[in-house]
User: Which sequence fits this backbone?
């Protein structure tokens, strides 16, 4: 394996899912729903395939999807963007992240992350030859350490990357935090990369896009996807919204990474994004019920449970059970209790910082969540 990827192992999501299968554990680890996406979206994909929409798509997205993304962004953030010049369709948000980083970051550029961070950020930054700095969001509220951040930003800083609602903690960046980060970006001429794939799973607060903070649109890449919102994580449809000068860079990387994204799924994605508001309300209502089951269950099982405002994840502290670290705890949980979760220490530059934590997902049907809770209450 190339040096730039030497330190990375098989992703923790794959590791835990494989172990879950091996031991027949209920998988509350990797974040994929165990129920299907909506029929009207699947139907739109079937129709597109039957209508012969099966050759390469336009590189930066099929026109109807670019337009649907721009319409959705206007509704959600109040920003009017040009679907042709400022929206790029990618193969999942993971590719949007890669295209953004590889298209806009030079070797030696410094990029600031907040730990715990999604694993692909660090790996892709490594592929780009960036220097990664990470500031830790600490329990119980995972607030942004404002003064530490201010001290960390320097003339070497090229970009700050955020994720709100935040995987794995469920934290949502507050307006004050976003404004503080925005001021630092503007004062130091720093770019902002914002992963907002859980924006429709905001339970305790309203989602705020960094791009909507005054003066930020021109330096921000906003990334999102279909997977979480439409329970279609396997479709891998994502996108990046950015002003033309940033879009140019990320489109260059996208052109040579994947060139274009699956054509019929893009047609279906356009139909999905035009869903009425009632779709989003129902999604949140369903997930609210699931969240309540898991939350109560984790408390009853004896974990220290941290508040989660958004995403379909809940972060807990496992120390009441007396294990040395998160990996050891999660292995025991799979083998002896029959439940899989994610040990988050790999989401830190210094794994020690995550060793007391465990992430659970509630993107499963209610019976599955109840069964998992029952196992933890009786066997932990
Ligand atoms: N985003 C998913 C999660 O956080 C995992 C995706 C993956 O397996 N790479 O659980």
Assistant:
């Amino acid at each position: 394996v190339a040096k730039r990827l030497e330190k990375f192992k098989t992703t923790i999501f794959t590791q835990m899912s494989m172990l879950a299968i091996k031991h027949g554990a209920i998988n509350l680890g990797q974040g994929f729903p165990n129920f299907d996406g909506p029929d009207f979206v699947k139907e739109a994909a079937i129709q597109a395939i039957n209508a012969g929409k099966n050759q390469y798509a336009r590189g930066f997205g099929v026109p109807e999807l670019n337009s649907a993304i721009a319409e959705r962004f206007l509704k959600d953030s109040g920003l009017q963007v040009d679907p042709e010049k400022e929206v790029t369709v990618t193969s999942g948000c993971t590719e949007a992240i890669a295209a953004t980083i590889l298209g806009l970051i030079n070797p030696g550029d410094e990029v600031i992350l907040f730990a715990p961070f999604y694993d692909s950020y660090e790996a892709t930054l490594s592929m780009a030859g960036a220097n990664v700095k990470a500031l830790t969001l600490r329990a119980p509220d995972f607030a942004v350490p404002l003064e530490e951040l201010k001290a960390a930003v320097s003339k070497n800083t090229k970009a700050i990357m955020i994720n709100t609602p935040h995987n794995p903690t469920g934290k949502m960046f507050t307006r004050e935090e976003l404004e503080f980060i925005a001021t630092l970006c503007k004062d130091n001429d720093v770019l902002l990369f914002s992963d907002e794939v859980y924006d429709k799973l905001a339970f305790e607060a309203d989602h705020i896009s960094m791009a909507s903070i005054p003066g930020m649109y021109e330096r921000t890449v906003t990334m999102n996807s279909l997977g979480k919102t439409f329970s279609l994580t396997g479709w891998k449809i994502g996108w990046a919204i950015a002003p033309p000068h940033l879009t140019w860079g990320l489109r260059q990387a996208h052109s040579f990474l994947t060139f274009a994204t699956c054509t019929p799924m893009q047609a279906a994605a356009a139909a999905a994004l035009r869903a009425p508001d009632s779709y989003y309300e129902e999604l949140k209502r369903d997930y609210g019920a699931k969240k309540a089951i898991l939350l109560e269950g984790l408390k009853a099982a004896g974990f220290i449970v941290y508040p989660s405002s958004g995403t379909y994840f809940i972060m807990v502290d496992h120390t009441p059970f007396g294990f040395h670290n998160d990996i050891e705890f999660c292995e025991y949980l799979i083998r002896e209790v029959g439940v899989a979760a994610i040990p988050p220490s790999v989401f830190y530059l210094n794994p020690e910082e995550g060793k007391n934590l465990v992430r659970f997902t509630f993107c499963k049907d209610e019976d599955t969540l109840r069964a998992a809770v029952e196992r933890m209450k009786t066997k932990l």
Q: What stands out?
A: Residues 137 and 145 are 7 Å apart (CA to CA). The longest strand covers residues 157-163. The two ends are 39 Å apart (CA to CA).
